[in-house]
Amino acid sequence: MISMELVDISRIQFAAVALFHFLFVPLTLGMVFILVIMESTYVLTGKQIYKDMTQFWGKLFGINFALGVTTGITMEFQFGTNWAYYSHYVGDVFGAPLAIEGLMAFFLESTFIGLFFFGWDKLSKVKHLMVTILVAIGSNLSALWILVANGWMNNPVGSEFSYVTMRMEMTDFWDVIFNPQAQAKFVHTVSAGYVTASVFVLGISSWYLLKGRDIEFAKRSFRIAAAFGLASALSVIVLGDDSGYVVGENQQTKLAAIEAMWHTEPAPASFNLIASINEAEQKNNWAIEIPYVMGILGTRSLTKQIPGIVEIKARNKQHIINGIHAVVALTALRSNPADEAAKTAFDQYKADLGFGLLLKKYTTNVANATPRMIQQATDDTVPRVTPLFWSFRVMVAAGFSLLALLSVAFYASVKNNFMRKRWLLRWALWFIPVPWIAIELGWFVAEYGRQPWTIYGVLPTCLSASSLTAGSVYGSLAGFVLLYTGLFIVEMYLMVKFARQGPSSLYTGRYQDELRQGGSALPNAAPAEKA
Amino acid sequence: MLDYEVLKVIWWLFIGVLLVGFAIMDGHDMGVGTLLPFVGRNDNERRVLLNTVGAHWEGNQVWFITGGGAIFAAWPLVYATAFSGFYWAMAAVLWSLFFRPVGFDYRSKIDNPTWRNTWDWGLFLGGFVPPLIFGVAFGNLLEGVPFHFDNDLRSFYTGSFWALLNPFALLTGLVSTAMITMHGANFLMIRTDADVYRRSRTASMLFGVLAVVLFAVAGVWVATGINGFVVTGGDIPGALPNPMDKTVIVQAGAWMRNYSNYPLTMLLPVLGFLGVLLSILLAGVHKPGMAFISSSVGMSGIIGTAGVTMFPFIMPSSTDPQSSLTVWDSVSSHMTLELMFFVTLIFLPLVIFYTSWAYKVLSGKITVDFIKSNDHSAY
Questions:
Q1: Is the pTM of this model over 0.90?
Q2: Domain segments of chain A as ranges
Q3: ipTM > 0.85 for the complex
Q4: What residues 298-357 of chain A have any CB closer than 8 A to a CB of chain B?
C-alpha cells in the first residue's frame, strides 16, 4: 500500500522548493527586459545615465538571479529524487522539454549573463546590448519550455500509454509544444514576471523620489517601469482570462472548484464574487453572484453549459468503474503480453486507465474495489474548493490593484507630475510585495487545482512519488527549508542594502551619497567614465 | 527515420559527451573552487581565483543541468532509479552547489573578512563535493547498486547512504576529485600570474600524479576484485525497452570482457593515462594551455573507460541482476530519442560556439592589480 504520509510530505517539499524558486524567477524574467530597454536607450542616445541605470538595476538583478539559479538547480533533479515513478511514467514526454530548455535556453542565458556583468569594457556598445538581449531571450525561452512541460501535466496531449514499456510515450511533439494550455500559461506567466519587475523598479525609484535623492536617475527609471508595467499588466489580465478559458475547456474540474460551482447552472452561468463555502454538504451557504459573467468567460458563449462539481463527480464515477477494467487488463498484460482477451479489454477501456489507478490509494487489488472505495476515489477527483476559491480571488484582486497602480503611474509619468504626487510614490513603494503574492497564489491555483493528478487524468499524485521513507523526505525538506531560508535572508539583506545605497553603489562619483561625502560632480553631469 | 538500435547507441555516446563536457567545463571551475582556500592566501589572491571563472562558471554549470535533463529525456528509468536511490548523495550534491551562485555573486559585495571567508569555504564545498560524489557514484555503478523493480516498473532501492561510501567507491571518488582539481589548476595557470600561478602549477602536478596512481589502482581493482555483469538472454538492442525482459549473471572479471572482445577500446584507458601524464609534464615545463588540453583528454579517457567497462550496462543491480538497466532497455521511445538527437545535433555545436566566443572576449590574465582597480565590479 502507498504511504500517504510519504506522498504528502513529498508534495510539501515540492511545493516548498517550487514556490521558493518562483520568488526569484519572475523578477529575472521581467528585469532583464527592463535592462534591455535601459541599455537600448543608452546605445541610441549615448547618455551616460542610462548606462548607469543598466548597471545599477543590473546589480539588483544579479543578486536576485543568484538565488534563482540556486533554487533552480533543485528543480531539474527533484523529479528524479522525489517523483521517481512519475519520472519513469512520463519521462518520455516530460523530460524532452526539460532537456531542450537546458540546451536551447539555459545555456544561452547563463553564458551571456557572465558577459553582461564582465563584458562592459571588452565589448562595443552594440555588442554588449546584443549580449543583454540574448540573456533576455534565453531566460524567457527557458520559461517557455518549462511551461510546455507544465502545460502537458495539466493537459496531456500528443502522447499515448504503452503497456509494454509501462509508461506514456510521445506520439506528436508539435501537439506537446502547441498545447493551448502551455501557450496561454507561458504568456500569462512571463507577463506576470514583467509586472513584478516593473513594480520592483517603480517602487524603489519612488523611494528615491520620496527621499529627494538621485532625482534624474529615479525619474527615468520610474517612467520606464510605468510604461513597461502597464503594458504587461494588461497582458497578464487578458491572457489570464485566456488561460481561464483554456482551463474551462480542458479542466472543468479545476474551473468548477475555483468558482465553487457545485451544480451545473443554465447557461450562461453566474460568477460567484464571494461565497460562504460548505464543502461537507457540497453547497454554498450564500454567495454574491454576478449574472452571466462565468458562462461568458468560461465558454466564450451564451449557450454552452459549464458542468458543476456534483455532475463532474457523477461522470468521474463512471470513468473510475471503467478504469477498473483497464487496470485489470493491464495487470494481465504485464504478466502475459500475448493475452489477446486482455489486450481487447485494455484497448476498450484504456482511456480511463488513470481513473482506475486512483483506486490504488485505497487497495492494491483494484479488481476487488468496494463501492465505498469507488465513492472515496470519486470524491478525490475534485480538489478542495475553499483554498482554490479564495486563492484565485486574492490573485485576481492583486492583479487588478496592480493594473490600477500602473495605470495611474503611467498617466502621471505622461503628465510628468509624478514627482509631486507623494501618495502615488508611497503607493508604489508599499506595493512592491503585491506581485509576489499574486504569483505564488497563481502557482497554487494552477497546481493544487490539478489534484489529485500529477498528469491530469493519467497519473494520480499518490502513485507518482519515489519509494523513499517518509523520514528521508522530512530530513531533506528540513535541509532545503533551512538552506533556502538562510540564503533568502542573506539575499534580502543585500538587496535592501544595495537598493538603499542606490546608484552610488556603482562608485561613479555622480550620485547622492558620494556628493555628500565631498564629491564635486552634479548628478548626471559628468559624462566621463570612472577611471 | 534512424534505426532505434542506432539511436540507443548514439544516446549512450551523447550522455558520455555531456558528462565529458561537464568535466571539462564545469570541472575546471569546480577545481578552482576546490583550490580557492589553498592557492589563494589572501583576499586579493582569492579574488583573482574567483575572477578567472567568475564570468563563466554559470554557463559551465549548465552542462550539469543539461546532463540531468538529457538523462531524464533519453534514459528516464536511469533518471528515476539513480536519483531516487542515491537520495542523500544527490541532496549533498545539490546543497553544496547552492553555495556557488550566491558565493560568487555575494562574496565580494561586502568588505568583511568573516563574511568573505565563510563564502570561500562555501565555494570550496561547491567545488569539492560534487566531483567527489559523482566519482563515488561511478564506483557504485561498477560494483552494482542494490535495487529492483516491481511488475509496474516501480523502483525500490534497498541500500543505505553509508553503503555508498565503500572503499572502492571512495577510491573512484578520489580519482574524480584528483582529475578535476588538476584540471582546475591547469586553468588557473592559463589565467593567472605570480604566486597564484606558481601554486597552481604545484597543485596541477601533484593532483595529476594522484590521478594517475589512483586510476591505475582502480583499474587493477576492477580487473581483479570486482564482479562484472553479463547479459545472458533477452535485452535485444532493437526491442521496446523493458528491463524485466532479460537475464543477467554476475561474473568475476566480466568487466574486462569488452576490452578482450574489442581491443580497440583499450585506447580509452590509454588516453586516460597519457592525457594526465602529459598534463603533468606540460605543467612542469610551463605550457598551461597544452596542459589544459591534455587534462581534458585525460579526463575524457577516464570517463570513457568507466562507460566502456560497463557497456551495455548503465546501472547494474547487485541484488536483482535482472533489474539492471542497460543501454537497450532504459531508454525513451524511438520518437523521443530521435527528436532529442536532432535537437542536440543543432544546439550543442551552437553552445560550444558561443561559449568559445565568451572565453575569447574575456581572455587574458587576471592579476592582483586588476582586482584592485575593479574593486567594486569584480567578484
A1: yes
A2: 4-251+383-507, 260-382
A3: yes
A4: 331, 334-335
